[in-house]
Amino acid sequence: MSQSMAELAAALRDRYPECPVQHDAQTDEVVLEVAPEALCEVAAALASAAGFAFAQLTDVCGVDYLAYGDAEWLTREATSRGYSRGVQRYDGRLDPDQGSPRRFAVVYHLLSLDRNQRLRLRVWLADTQFPVIDSVQDIWPAANWFEREAFDLYGIHFAGHPDLRRILTDYGFVGHPFRKDFPISGNVELRYDPEKGRVVYEPVQIAPRVLVPKVIRPAAAEAAATEGKATHG
Predict the structure, then answer these.
(1) Residue 52's domain is classified under what CATH number?
(2) What is the pLDDT of residue 229?
(3) Which helix (H) or strand (E) holds 21?
(4) Residue 28 pairs with which residues in a beta bridge?
(5) Is residue 115 part of a domain?
(6) Residues 188/205, Cβ–Cβ less than 8 Å
């Protein structure tokens, strides 16, 4: 059955009136936000209900919104040369009860092969000191390693997970490296030294860097195209 993303957003609003639903008309993406205590119930319905049939989980990722949107870079008002980006503030990060910024979220990317649709499911975690949420491994078995990755990199605990262990960092690693406040100095890393014939511990070498995507502005693109025609004409 063919169903547009706008119709999917409307169906989600009808079924879950208490849950925020966002439909970006430009990208045609739909995001459903669910409270942590309702996650398993909503996930089970999304996976099996005939009106949704999101039987496949393609990804689970943690997100650390610490200091998100505190700095905004200009785009159209910036210089026509160089790099810049624009950050659109997201009001949903504010806790509706406390009015304070929430930090950790878990995002689930769902796929319905029956309807050829994708859905993003986001859950905000209330506790920033010990973020915990129920595992959805029983609903989507593919969540097993994804949840382990989020636990390893962000320190998010998944209650009911059958084997919640680190999956990417080394044995005995302390901390969670994808957290925004994870220190980039003062830690050690280990490697095998062929000259010494043993494993050696060394200070972690992490160079701070800012990844800034280039924004191609219409005026600049037209100027470049005109210049190219003149050069090759």
Answers:
(1) 3.30.460.80
(2) 57
(3) strand 21-24
(4) none
(5) yes
(6) no
